[in-house]
């Protein structure tokens, strides 16, 4: 558990959570989420699509019981990275978005990405987490590095130039200072 407090994760409800998500993904701090101009129906449709997808799942992260972040987990063999790298058994793709706030808490975003990684590695089948953030998103590159990600190379996705990065369970534990 983080010093920031307890985090929990629950499946996202695309209709019930749409208004909340709409505020988050259209906020200026969520520019790299690429939904700045999305309408509420656009957000509902996108998360209904994810909910219906066998290999892509969305979760709402809670801090002290209050919505605090969005987490997406996907199988890169079928979603996001098809044909862009050679997936290995146990690879899991991830996206996360911290809710915008008027009262930032020092270390909160790092605590969130740590909680997301703990959630992903709680599944013993997960051997490596894969991310593909925009090459220009320097803040997330630093966060990824802080939890053990190592960049492999830049790749061209239809919507962006991305930095393909990986983090094994061992790299995550080492970054946290936990012996494996």
From TrEMBL:
InterPro entries: Acyl_CoA_acyltransferase, Acyltransferase_MbtK/IucB-like, GNAT_dom. GO terms for molecular function: acyltransferase activity. Pathway: Siderophore biosynthesis; mycobactin biosynthesis. Keywords: Acyltransferase, Antibiotic resistance, Transferase. Pfam families: Acetyltransf_8. The lineage of its organism: Bacteria, Bacillati, Actinomycetota, Actinomycetes, Kitasatosporales. Coiled coil: none annotated. Residues 7-170 form the N-acetyltransferase domain. Acyltransferase required for the direct transfer of medium- to long-chain fatty acyl moieties from a carrier protein (MbtL) on to the epsilon-amino group of lysine residue in the mycobactin core. It comes from Streptomyces lusitanus. This is Lysine N-acyltransferase MbtK.
């Amino acid at each position: 558990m983080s010093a920031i407090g307890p985090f929990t994760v629950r499946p996202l409800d695309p209709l019930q959570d749409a208004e909340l998500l709409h505020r988050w993904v259209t906020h200026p701090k969520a520019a790299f989420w690429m939904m700045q101009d999305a309408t509420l129906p656009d957000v509902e449709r996108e998360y209904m699509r994810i909910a219906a997808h066998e290999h892509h799942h969305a979760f709402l992260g809670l801090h002290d019981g209050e919505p605090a972040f969005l987490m997406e987990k996907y199988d890169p063999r079928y979603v996001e990275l098809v044909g862009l790298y050679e997936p290995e058994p146990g690879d899991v793709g991830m996206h996360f978005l911290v809710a915008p706030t008027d009262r930032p808490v020092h270390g909160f975003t790092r605590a969130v990405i740590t909680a997301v990684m703990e959630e992903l590695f709680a599944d013993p089948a997960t051997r490596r987490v894969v991310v593909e953030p925009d090459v220009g998103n320097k803040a997330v590159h630093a966060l990824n590095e802080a939890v053990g990600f190592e960049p492999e190379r830049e790749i061209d996705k239809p919507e962006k130039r991305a930095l393909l990065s990986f983090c094994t369970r061992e790299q995550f534990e080492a970054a946290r200072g936990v012996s494996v």
